[in-house]
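tool_call predict_complex ligand=nicotinamide-adenine-dinucleotide
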Amino acid sequence: MTGGAGFLGSTLVDRLMEAGEEVICLDNYFTGTKVNVARWIGHPSFELIRHDVTEPILLEVDRIWHLACPASPRYYQANPIKTAKTSFLGTYNMLGLARRVGARLLMASTSEVYGDPEVHPQPESYRGCVNTTGIRSCYDEGKRIAEALCFDYHRMHGTEIRVARIFNTYGPRMFSDDGRVVSNFVVQALRGQPLTLYGDGSQTRSFCYVDDLVEGLIRLMNANHNGPINIGNPGEFTIRQLADLVRARINPSLPFVYLPLPQDDPLQRQPVIDLARRELGWEPKVSLEEGLDPTIAYFRRSLGLDS
Ligand code: NAD
Ligand code: UDP
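tool_result ok
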């Protein structure tokens, strides 16, 4: 698993280790931490390797879960050229490994391949509206070329690929300074700070709880559909609604502060998950209202506020 020390990767590591799999976790710790996988360090079926996926690596494996890539705009925009390299070279190196050892590779793609969508909600057949020269393109276009590489390895070399288009996911193990909206709002509310709404807060996102997402990835890896498949929760919320939900759970009297909408921020996003329902027998079980509680409890603990 690449990116196995990150938010989604480490949750997936837990699921695989608990199922008795052997896991090799590769990570450069840019946005991940050993703490996320600490419980498995020393376990005979677990190996943790500091490795940057922009460099090749030789290993004997039969499944590759390729998740390495910073996911939060704050981090993927910090060094956009590195982000593009991670997506392109990282996926190229992992596909090379998959081809050499005959492994099946699942690539963590993203709803960002749809850009600022003109089609709503977004089915897999929608080809997207991405600004190739904007500040998000290192990530969006990086994931698009990563998808293209997967399908070319499949066509040229018969490499088994699975492509998950992941929509906004939240839950325990996000970093408190991650910069994504759920962690920002929860941490701000727990610290008694105003909630930072970018723009007027009318833009929408569809938030999937991490356990649902990981279940979808496991089903996709084991299924026979080589993708791409949307994995996300179709429940669509404005950012203002999300802020209200967080505030209501922590401190309803907290104010909002309105900040400029970042460039190319998508106005709406909602997955069509008919394909996942049909091919994987999967749909999310945890509503945003339910998933916020364990997320808030996690941040309370990680900020040392649960005394
Ligand atoms: P994350 O930032 O928590 O995890 C990414 C992990 O990859 C981190 O541990 C980081 O250190 C590692 N990494 C980054 N660059 C690397 C490199 N060059 N070499 C080795 N390791 C590297 O993000 P996440 O939310 O867990 O996302 C995991 C994957 O899922 C990413 O590929 C992301 O693009 C994709 N995704 C996530 C979401 C979401 O909402 N969480 C949505 C769409 C797609
Ligand atoms: N956002 C916000 N306040 C924040 C962080 C984000 O209003 O403190 C908005 C952001 O502008 C975007 C949405 O929330 O419209 C989701 O942002 P995030 O970075 O979580 O994910 P992405 O934009 O990549 O979907």
